Amino acid sequence: YIPYYLGETIEFGSEESNITSLPKILLGNNAHSMNLVYYNKALSKLKKFAGFIELFALMSYGECTNEEREEFYQNAREVFNRNFHPVEEFIPQELFSEWLDRFDIYLSNIPVQSGLGIIYNMLFKGKRVFLTGHNFEWCKSNGFIVFDVNDMISGDKGLISPLKMQEKTHNQKK
Questions:
Q1: How is 98-155 classified by DSSP, letter by letter?
Q2: CA separation (Å) from 8 to 84, 86, 123?
Q3: Which of 15, 22, 150, 169 is deepest in the core (most CB within 10 A)?
Q4: Kind and range of the H or E element at 3?
Q5: Using CA atoms, how far apart are residues 142 and 174, in angstroms rounded to an integer?
Q6: pLDDT tens digit string along 128-171?
Q7: What is the mean pLDDT of each run of 10 residues along the chain (174 residues)?
């Protein structure tokens, strides 16, 4: 099972599940205590996009304390207010790929290699993917078009635009 959360008890696949028309960023990969440090660092990199994006954070698995979880939620809500959505529930694996369709961008600020399933899914779907550390290095060395999380600091709105068709096709052929 894979996590998902839609915020205000919105049914999966309903017309209401498209909360806003803002670009949706999925922050991953899990809520382990160490990863929450990187989640919080990602918030500082995304601050300039507040009001221009919705942020969803994978929180349904991983071992962290309630205090760590609530601290991250508070930090995220301070920046993104109602455009922050923690992903706390699980979705069956067979629906996971379809669920990912709702996101425009995947961002993993975690320096160790993790979350390859989501990364591959998002690349194949033609989505923009921001990585750091081993994931970034590995994807770049294998010819994927991926972006460095640290580039988000610039606040360049072009970073949250869809990939060009040529870039999408390139990643799908890898």
A1: HHHTT-SEEEE--SSS--HHHHHHHHHTT-EEEE-HHHHHHHHHTT---EEGGGGGG-
A2: 12, 11, 28
A3: 22
A4: strand 2-4
A5: 8
A6: 999 999 999 999 999 999 999 999 888 888 899 999 999 999 99
A7: 34 44 92 84 93 93 88 96 92 89 95 89 96 96 96 88 95 91
